[in-house]
């Protein structure tokens, strides 16, 4: 497996960065996770827009244009002869001294990893996920916006740890006011009748690329799709709950904090949206 590291392809076990990299020392950097379906990179432009948006937010200048980044992604896929893959793009502040000040970092490091997908087991799409809500709160959007996909993922890691301690694989985090924000690495939707809700970005959700695709599809399919805040109570009494993300696509949630959602099986609308999403992926690839 070949890793793109600052202009060169190096073998996986040789792809190393300095312990003085501020991405390592302080989580100073940004990243993206992107999916490749049958040789087509899903919504690469949207992912690159989010990457540059995240970088701008932390005043990190990516040393390539979006066109160059596109080319690097494509070359990495070709080099690894991958048709279905997960791509991780990482831009760290670079190597500096031990101080926090990023001005000691001469240049950002650009890393692209492309590998085979590690997916949720297929059965989970039939049975649905059991999740919990956790004590970890989403950081406030006026401090470091959760819309920024930075290398600071401690919030999300704590959510994952709490989920594991509760014996489940994913969990929902609330914001400081008690509104539901998102999962550790996915967005959340609830269905009530013809209405579908997902938390707006300002509540503390990343504006997921899969989330955007589902909002688009829900509108096309005639649902009353809204970006609106909701609470844990609304989740408990929803007809259906599902999560969206690059790796998970659309996955049903059938139990939250031990409470059964709907009839305890993946809901009709969730399955309909998953099918519509998979169809859109193919249509996008044909463009
Ligand atoms: N929320 C967080 C915190 C994430 O890290 C991710 C993963 O990228 C998502 C949501 C889902 O976003 P996307 O659909 O772009 O993968």
Automatic annotation (TrEMBL):
Example GO molecular function: L-leucine-2-oxoglutarate transaminase activity
Indicate whether Transferase appears among the record's keywords: yes
What reaction does this enzyme carry out catalytically?
L-leucine + 2-oxoglutarate = 4-methyl-2-oxopentanoate + L-glutamate; L-isoleucine + 2-oxoglutarate = (S)-3-methyl-2-oxopentanoate + L-glutamate; L-valine + 2-oxoglutarate = 3-methyl-2-oxobutanoate + L-glutamate
Q: Which UniProt keywords apply?
A: Amino-acid biosynthesis, Aminotransferase, Branched-chain amino acid biosynthesis, Pyridoxal phosphate, Transferase
**Entry-linked Gene3D superfamilies:** 3.30.470.10, D-amino Acid Aminotransferase, subunit A, domain 2 (3.20.10.10)
**Which EC numbers does the record give?**
2.6.1.42
Q: Which GO terms describe its cellular component?
A: cytosol
Cofactor(s), by name = pyridoxal 5'-phosphate
Q: Which GO terms describe its biological process?
A: isoleucine biosynthetic process; L-leucine biosynthetic process; L-valine biosynthetic process
Which PROSITE patterns does the UniProt record give?
Answer: AA_TRANSFER_CLASS_4
What pathway does this protein act in?
Amino-acid biosynthesis; L-valine biosynthesis; L-valine from pyruvate: step 4/4; Amino-acid biosynthesis; L-leucine biosynthesis; L-leucine from 3-methyl-2-oxobutanoate: step 4/4; Amino-acid biosynthesis; L-isoleucine biosynthesis; L-isoleucine from 2-oxobutanoate: step 4/4
Recorded hits in InterPro entries, A to Z, give: Aminotrans_IV (IPR001544), Aminotrans_IV_CS (IPR018300), Aminotransferase-like (IPR036038), B_amino_transI (IPR005785), BCAT-like_C (IPR043132), BCAT-like_N (IPR043131), Class-IV_PLP-Dep_Aminotrnsfr (IPR050571)
Keyword Kinase attached: no
- What Pfam family does this protein match (any one)? Aminotran_4
Q: Which range is the signal sequence, renumbered to this chain?
A: none
What this chain does, per the entry, is described as: Acts on leucine, isoleucine and valine.
Similarity comment: family membership: Belongs to the class-IV pyridoxal-phosphate-dependent aminotransferase family.
Looking up NCBIfam families in the UniProt record yields: ilvE_I, PRK08320.1
Query: Which protein is depicted?
Result: Branched-chain-amino-acid aminotransferase
């Amino acid at each position: 497996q070949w890793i793109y590291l600052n202009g060169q392809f190096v073998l996986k076990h040789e792809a190393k960065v300095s312990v003085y990299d501020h991405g390592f020392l302080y989580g100073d950097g940004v990243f993206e996770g992107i999916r490749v379906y049958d040789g087509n990179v899903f919504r690469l432009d949207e992912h690159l827009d989010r990457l540059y948006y995240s970088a701008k937010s932390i005043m990190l200048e990516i040393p390539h244009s979006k066109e160059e980044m596109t080319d690097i992604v494509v070359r990495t896929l070709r080099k690894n002869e991958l048709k279905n893959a997960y791509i991780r793009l990482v831009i760290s502040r670079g190597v500096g001294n031990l101080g926090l000040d990023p001005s000691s970092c001469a240049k950002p490091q650009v890393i692209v990893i492309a590998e085979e997908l590690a997916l949720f087991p297929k059965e989970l799409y039939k049975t649905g996920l059991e999740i919990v809500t956790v004590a970890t709160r989403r950081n406030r959007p006026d401090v470091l916006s959760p819309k920024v996909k930075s290398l600071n993922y401690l919030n999300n890691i704590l959510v994952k740890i709490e989920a594991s301690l509760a014996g489940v694989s994913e969990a929902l985090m609330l914001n400081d006011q008690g509104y539901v924000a998102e999962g550790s690495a996915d967005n959340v939707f609830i269905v009530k009748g013809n209405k579908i809700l997902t938390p707006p970005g300002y509540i503390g959700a990343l504006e997921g690329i899969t989330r955007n695709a589902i909002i688009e599809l829900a509108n096309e399919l005639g649902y009353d799709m809204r970006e609106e805040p909701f609470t844990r109570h609304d989740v408990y009494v929803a007809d259906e709950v599902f999560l969206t993300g690059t790796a998970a696509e659309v996955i049903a949630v059938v139990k939250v904090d031990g409470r059964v959602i709907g009839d305890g099986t993946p809901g009709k609308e969730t399955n309909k949206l998953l099918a519509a999403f998979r169809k859109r992926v193919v249509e996008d690839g044909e463009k």
